Amino acid sequence: MDRADAFALLTEYVKDQGLIRHMLAVEAAMRTYARKFGEDEGKWGLTGLMHDFDYERWPNPPDHPMKGSVILRERGVSEDVIYAILSHADYLTAYPRVHPVDKALYACDELAGFVTAAALVRPGGITDMTAASVKKKMKSKGFARTVNRDDILRGAADFGVDLTVHIQFVIDAIKPLAPELGLLQGLAGEGD
To answer: Which of 77, 133, 155, 157 has the fewest CB atoms within 10 Å distance of its CB?
Structure first.
């Protein structure tokens, strides 16, 4: 499945623009990590782009991501991409994160969501965001409370990357998409 076909499938199943932007952000982080580690950028990007495409229709475990995996398999998506997507769900213990792409997806998923949320409340959006400002927001339990901080910490540790370096890496990977993701300017009156 090429990226154009993947995006068409994604937009067939997902109408929520926030969820689409999330998957685009995870795709950007995954592609950038693939480039860094000499992995297949297309495959890693596809994994990030499609990891939640079934969530809007089937948000409850284990339907998400199991129902999506059936659809992806029918569309000819490679088993390693499907496996990585299945492994990002902690409740699917039959799919432990063992491959670099599995670990990268888990490490980037929650963090990309948190970075996006933090950018939306900064006057400068993501443009001047640093890892330090994200880490400060992580300490605020009331901020983006649906994002599991333990998953962010565990994801970085399992992927074998320093948390601060990882946060900055994901910020920098998402930054080029800031106009498309609505992250150039946050809401007025908020700060770090």
So the answer is: 157
Long-range contacts of 120-123 (CB under 8 A, 24+ apart): 120/182, 120/183, 120/186, 120/187, 121/186, 121/187, 121/190, 121/191, 122/186, 122/190, 122/191, 122/192, 123/185, 123/186, 123/188, 123/189, 123/190, 123/191
Instruction: Sketch the domain layout of the chain as residue ranges.
Output: 3-181
Which spans in the chain are helix H? 3-13, 17-37, 41-50, 63-74, 79-87, 100-120, 131-138, 149-159, 163-174, 178-181
- pLDDT tier at 192, thresholds 50, 70, 90: very low
Token pair in block for residue 52: 């939640």
Residue 188 has pLDDT above 80, yes or no: no
Give the Cα separation of 93 and 96 in Å (integer): 6
Q: Is 133 helix (H, G, I), strand (E, B) or coil?
A: helix
167: which residues sit within 8 A by CB, 6+ positions away? 111, 115, 131, 134, 135
Residue 158 has pLDDT above 80, yes or no: yes
Residues 6 or more apart whose Cβ sits within 8 Å of residue 162 = 156
